[in-house]
């Protein structure tokens, strides 16, 4: 697990070519970057979810919706559900990056290390690894997304034609409340679009890895500008393609749609939105979503790269100090052992010399 990716990829200049690199480093760096980015830009994520639930025929603008939220729910209203959102986003990103790198390594081992450093082969490896990571991550974070959506839609009575959502108790009591009212299956509502939505991340990471491999001047420690441009562009493309799935996921996880035949499944939900609102309904909240994901992704990736570099450097320094300390201790013990042996030998020789010529009493 600690083998460098460069050796497994026949010396190619991959981003994961650092010496003594461990997979947990990617997970830890991902958690740091994602949690910080979500806390900084959370109001946009909150507004995006609210915009997804605007009923058909409405043309409420994002800024107007934000003003209404602040007027009716206060500034704190823009931060409802921030705790579970930060946990969901950071766990999702950390787990995704961990499983992505692990899948890269495992697939490379299965291929016998014969991956060539060409765009097609490398992109195919990234794509397969991203598919594995996306499926695992999507399944794990769906319950967190359900709780997050319920909290964000609580008191959503400022939107036109909206029915007030039931408040969700804080902490684990919220999970018990959902299970008691709707059963365990409710915790996995929207699992289908959530797993498919990880295709968003698959496209994003595949594009980003291509930029990182072919455009970055320093693969070990790329500049923030390079990371920001590559991550922002890749996320904007992926977000635009997958916005309809984000809309239907929010609708499926909305408590007010529980039990409605129109939102019984992902497919019926998409059909309902398409019949009632057309293309406009499929792309509800897209401007807010793009405005959210670009700075959030830039921040998350920049912090991920810098955190990964810092963790890697700190680990190597600690390992070097440990090795040097062990070597010093071994040398010191050897010197002490040699000195003790010399003293014993000298004492024995002296004693023997004194006994020579003396009578031996029986």
UniProtKB/TrEMBL annotation:
Residues 341-355 have a biased composition (Low complexity). InterPro entries: MCP (IPR002067), MCP_dom_sf (IPR023395), MCP_transmembrane (IPR018108), SLC25A32-like (IPR044712). Signal peptide: none annotated. Solcar repeats lie at residues 21-106, 121-214, 222-310. It is a multi-pass membrane protein. It comes from the Eukaryota. Keywords: Membrane, Repeat, Transmembrane, Transmembrane helix, Transport. It is found in: Membrane. GO terms for molecular function: nucleotide transmembrane transporter activity. GO terms for cellular component: membrane. Residues 326-362 are annotated as: Disordered. Belongs to the mitochondrial carrier (TC 2.A.29) family. This is Mitochondrial carrier protein. It comes from Leishmania naiffi.
């Amino acid at each position: 697990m600690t083998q460098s990716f460069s050796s497994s990829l026949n010396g190619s200049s991959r981003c994961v070519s650092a010496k003594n690199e461990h997979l947990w480093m990617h997970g830890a760096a991902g958690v740091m970057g994602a949690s910080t980015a979500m806390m900084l830009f959370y109001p946009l994520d909150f507004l995006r979810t609210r915009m997804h639930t605007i009923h058909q025929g409405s043309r409420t603008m994002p800024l107007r919706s934000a003003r209404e939220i602040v007027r009716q729910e206060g500034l704190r209203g823009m931060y409802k559900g921030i705790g579970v959102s930060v946990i969901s986003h950071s766990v999702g990103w950390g787990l995704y990056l961990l499983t992505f790198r692990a899948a890269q390594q495992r697939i490379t081992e299965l291929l016998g290390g014969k991956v060539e450093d060409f765009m097609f082969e490398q992109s195919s490896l990234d794509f397969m690894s991203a598919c594995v990571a996306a499926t695992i991550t999507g399944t794990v974070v769906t319950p967190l997304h359900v709780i997050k959506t319920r909290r964000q839609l609580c008191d959503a009575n400022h939107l036109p034609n909206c029915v007030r959502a039931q408040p969700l108790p804080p902490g684990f009591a919220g999970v018990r409340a959902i299970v008691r009212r709707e059963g365990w299956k409710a915790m996995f509502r929207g699992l289908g679009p959530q797993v498919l939505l990880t295709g968003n991340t698959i496209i994003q990471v595949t594009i980003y890895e291509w930029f990182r491999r072919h455009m970055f001047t320093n693969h070990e420690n790329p500049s923030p500008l390079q990371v920001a441009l590559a991550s922002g562009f890749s996320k904007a493309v992926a977000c635009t393609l997958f916005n309809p799935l984000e809309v239907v996921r929010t609708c499926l996880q909305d408590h007010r749609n529980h039990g409605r035949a129109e939102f019984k499944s992902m497919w019926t939900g998409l059909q309902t939105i398409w019949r009632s609102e057309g293309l406009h309904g499929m792309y509800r909240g897209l401007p807010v979503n793009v405005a959210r994901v670009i700075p959030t992704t830039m921040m998350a990736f920049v912090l991920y790269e810098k955190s990964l570099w810092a963790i890697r450097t700190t680990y190597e320094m600690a390992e070097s100090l440990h090795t040097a300390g062990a070597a010093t201790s071994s040398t010191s013990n050897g010197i002490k052992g040699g000195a003790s042996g010399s003293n014993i030998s000298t004492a024995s020789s002296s004693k023997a010399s004194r006994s020579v010529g003396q009578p031996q009493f029986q």
